[in-house]
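From the pipeline queue, job 12 of 40. The input is one protein chain; the requested action is below.

Action: predict structure.
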Amino acid sequence: MISNQWSDKIAKEFCDAAPQTPADQELALRVYTSRLIGIHPDLVMHGGGNTSVKVRRENLFGEMEDVLHVKGSGWDLEVIEAAGLPGVRLEPLMRLRTLDALSDEAMVNAQRNNLLDSSAPNPSVETLLHAFLPHKFIDHTHATAFLVLANMPNAVERCREIFGDRLGIVPYIMPGFDLAKAAADVYDANPDVEGLLLLQHGHFAFGNTARQSYERIIEHTNAVAAALALEGPTEIAANDFEALPDAVIDLRGALAKCDSDSDIAPMPILDVRANSSILEFLERKDIPQLLTRGVASPDHVIRIKGRPLHLPRSTWRQGKTAISAAIANYQQDYKTYFTREAARSSQPKTMLSALPSLVWMEGVGIIGVGANAKAASVAADLGVQNVRVRSVGEDQGGFHPVNEADLFDLEYWSLEQAKLGKAKPPVMTGKVVMITGGAGAIGRAIAKTFAGVGADIVLVDRPGTGLQDLATRISKNALAVEMDITEEEAADRAIKSAINRFGGLDILISNAGAAQIGAMLELNDRQLSDSYDLNFFAPYRFARAAARCMCRQGKGGQLLFNISKQSVNPGRNFGAYGLPKASTLFLLRQLSLELGEKHIRVNGVNADRIRSGIVTDEFIASRSSARGIKAADYMAGNLLKQEVEARHVAEAFLMLAQMERTTGHVVTVDGGNVEASLR
């Protein structure tokens, strides 16, 4: 059951923080209850659902007018703010109800023309439904329980058994003008209803206050859950596996290969989810039938397509060839579906990617597929919800969502088609990048730089370095792996972590390192051995494990090393650091020879005099004092007379990552130092 989270104290805090006009006070409560709804995945998930409030505001002429504040495009109820509920003049919207027909484009234009703030986001596509209903507060959800009910063949009868006449029932109509009119007509026929059941879609509740509308959402949803024996919340399964089968790597590589033969084309990110319920579902004997039933709510088709790719054990255990054949069959089926349904349209349609957005992998779990970790996570979350809706619905009398034609109309909605090609993805979209020494100054700069251009990040460093906090600051989807990289099995564990989280690895940046200072004749064997473990053997083991993953994916990859000037220009008392770095430079060149035919590029950056774990403030003070110069002059002691910063090193790594036909190369980033240049 979903608990009622309303708090008078917190409601007052929202009101106290808002302007004190009556309209803004009501809007503050609207924000509060919208968030209460948004925090629960069994009510709404990933932008699903919307909320509204009707208020009166003074216009430029000092006149009072009715205004509808409704959720705007791109806002999530869980984190919505007042700006995410743009105000729309209500009277012009109400006049639209007198029309017999209205295109989606004309509807959107009318809504935008009547915004109080022209820079506000587009109001929800269901704005007119909120407008045509007379209630002050209206809440719309895609609650799991209601999705089960809405997709049952006897949904009307079951709804009457649960609610009597308390809910109006609206047949399935695609969101927009026609649905708004139909819903308003249903309400007008019984103005005493507390809400609406939209068949094969979701649930509306309304009230005179924010609290009343919110509490009706909770009460209605719990009533349905109880009637359907839907116990407990939907468990959004975690992806903290010990190890996934290598077939997941095969799947990622096969998906990429089926999408493009190019080695540099973005690879999909995978998000694997599994728990006992999911694994049990994937063993059902009626899986072939359930595959083709569509999705729990029509809007899900935009995120996860109309059906998933099914990979039985008998398929994925045969390896990449069999997986690729299954993907190719899926693509052909999708193209056939597109051709069949597009022929009905009066307007030309541009086919979307034919790759699956969701995979049911028997014995492994549900796998979300996306251009980046966020998209993959959304697909996986919706996949988990859809599995529960299908499973419970089928056992309660049947799961029968909208038909293929209706799904196509939403998937290829003109409003969605208009968005195609308008936004070019960042250059590192689809790239999983692992950075060792991720908590250090250079590691942080590398992570921020790559994340800023779309990469998904795996940070590796020692425990106690604040790595998890750093990862969270860099990206909601960044992964922190805390370990001692000198341990013999560390590399394999780190690469497995990347595979478990993202499905594979594309770029490894071996950045971790530390200097052991002392004259060679004064060093003992342990000191030199420890330096080799950190500065050579760890990069070697990580490169080996990463390359094996990249080879299995079959789409190339990159190994990038942080090389020091000590590898080519020894410095006094830095021999224990320079020797393993020189070995790493040779390793870079050796790997470039051996991995070139696998399209794995191997390059490095030779950085010098960067403020980091090695070049500390104390180190800088000592070196500058010994030379009789200021610290700033010491750090700018190069041909450019400018200090080289960690971000400049990060930019060099990013440049190398984009150099498609370069391998075995080292880029020097030191402001110009002839003595330290590679020869």
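Job complete. The chain has a mean pLDDT of 92.
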